[in-house]
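Dear all,

This email documents one entry for the complex benchmark we are building for the journal club exercise. For each entry we list the sequence lines for every component of the assembly. Then comes the predicted three-dimensional structure of the complex as a token string, followed by one or two observations. Please use this as the template for your own entries, and keep the labels exactly as they appear.
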Amino acid sequence: METEKDDVLTKPGTPLKEPVIVIEHLYKSFGDNAVLKDFNLIINEEENVVVLGKSGSGKSVLIKCIIGLLKPDSGNIFVFGENVPDMAHEELDRIRTKMGFLFQGNALYDSMTVRENLEFPLRRHWIGFSQAKVDGLVMEALGNVGLKHAVDMMPAELSGGMLKRVALARTMILQPDIILYDEPTTGLDPVTAREIDTLIITLQRKYHTSSIIISHDMNCVKNTADRVVLLLDGKCYTEGTYLDFEKSTDENIRQFFE
Amino acid sequence: MAPFSQTKKFLDDTGSISRFAGHFFSIGIKPRYEIKELLAQCYIIGYKSLPLIGLTGFIMGLVLTMQLRPSLIIYGVESKLPVMIGIAIVREIGPVITALIFAGKIGSSIGAELGSMKVTEQIDAMEVSGTNPFKYLVATRILAATLMLPVLTLLGDAISLFGAYLGVNIHTVTNYHLFFTQVFQSLSFGDVLPAFIKTFFFGFAVGVIGCYKGYFSSKGTRGVGNSANSAVVLASVMIFVIDLLAVQITDVLGLN
């Protein structure tokens, strides 16, 4: 199956949007294990792209390279026109205010309350904010995920779904333009997973964000994807809409529906 | 091959820890300063360790006195007991025992805490939040350990000497003023200062090793456990190595 990137981007009726992330010829290896091999991808404004792939296929490595947690061996990752691999630490901090990252395991600071978890990125990036302003933003973020009542609870007191929602609130609190989701529904029951999918879409519409969602959960793909990219053997094997994937007879795609 | 690979691993580890310590001086002590986190760590590392250090110091002074007294009676120098106790505690036993207990409590705690944060991606989350985790987590803990151990040693020494005073009074009634006058008259500048200075190095070693082991913890619960365990073992060995070097240096400088 040939890549459908050009078809999707120029599909009649699809408004042309500015690219916010452009990935060119990305290579990343760990020792002898080449994870990404000449990976290319473009993410446009307000677009939700799901990167689909099997475990260990390099999906998480990809988004960690985008946010600068991992340095690629070669290739370019342009975020709003700036090449992330070339950035110094201070420049990375600046570009990271425009990007949010939802970790697979939530990565909430377990020694801090929910309020402190949400305040942490605010305090680091927006130093001049008054306490009242910070409190307002924290409560707004928690309100978005329906967890205002949990503001003074510790992460250990929350359920899996609540943890994910708090993590989502923390990711959104700086109101980033791009959000990277690392398997947002993994480990959640179908009802909670559906709630998280709905939240992703609701917040995307509210804040007009662009997203890359790493997943192998086809319900999540169906609910959230504007476009789906299949990562196979370190490359973009194919891309299209969820319906394109659902109709496909390609063995590498069918296995995700079985 | 086993001894060769073990030696290579030891040398690799030593090089990595030295680089990590160098990183502390090149990055950790530059602005932006994490004062709030440093004070929080001083409270956790210093204040919360005081009961344990105090208790062990008290028992150490008491036991040392009870063990030494019969031997000194045999040689007819029982009156020199406060002098011996004072020199032993202030010069050597106080700093080393306090540092070893500190390594057990704080080294393992830092190793496990950072190891756990590493495997649950909290350190990555911190980096994504625009915080340099080395400055926020590592530099503050190393600095707090370096500053708090000397304070704890001073307090531990004082409590230990008080324990020794009670130990002396189990068999004979000794005046409080007389006991402590004898202790302090036997101590000179050359006894107190080198012993005090080396505790900064002990604290630094415990902080660096605890942070290094935690920061580079391997994944999984076993990885976290190994980090905590190896932090204690390595820090304890380093305390003796530093103590050995400190004795040699004070000897060369004529402070003994």
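Observations: Chain A is about 35% helix and 25% strand. Residues 108 and 167 of chain A are 6 Å apart (CA to CA).
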